[in-house]
Design a protein that fits this description.
Blueprint (H helix, E strand, L loop, with lengths): L3 H23 L3 H16 L3 H6 L2 H7 L8 H20 L3 H21 L7 H12 L7 H13 L3 H14 L3 H15 L3 H6 L4 H12 L4
Helix pairs in contact: 1-2, 1-5, 2-5, 5-6, 6-7, 6-8, 8-9, 9-10, 10-12
Pfam families: DUF6483
Protein name: Bacterial transcriptional activator domain-containing protein
InterPro entries: DUF6483
Length: 218
Amino acid sequence: MINKDYILRLAEQIGYELSIVLRLRKRNLHEDELLAIDNLLLKYTGMTSRFINSLSDETLLQSLSPLGKLNVESSLWIASLLKEEGEAYSALNNSRESYYRYTKSLFILLEILHQEHVAFDSDLYEDAANLIAKLADYELPAHLEQKLFRYYEQKGMYAQAENILFDYLEHHPAPGMIEAGRAFYGRLQEKSSTDLELGNFSQEEIHEGIEQLKAFEV
């Protein structure tokens, strides 16, 4: 689990650097804002925005995981700065570019939350919720839906996890996700009724979900 004090110190540093970006945004100097973000990315990650955004999400994740261990500091800088880059493109009415920044930012942030077992009271969960809200009206890439499925279960939001599961299977009936669904319901069967209720779920819905899942196994 990431040390909470470490996250707070890093968040303060990121917030300080972003204050310059936000001042440019308030003055509608969005091109200058994008340049400032690019400079910060290069300073703190050694990578430019153009390079980062040229990589697939999975390739970017691999580059941030030397020897299989996620570089949390670089990952947080990238997630934070890509989100702000998305805001700049949104202000420029370039929804295509903002969409790609938001999805890549969310992908990295969800991976941090999963790999590092971040405490649920961390502001990082609020950051993830804000990005999810920004993308609510868009179709998400399949690999990001997989991350969201895992995220919602991790948060104890079982109904939302199930919605993601079946939405994914409607469009991508892949054996791997079917197996993930079976494992999901298996874990839920071990939960108490109270835990299920907190996740807006029930034993009856588990059985219904298992039966619904069988339709995709044919």
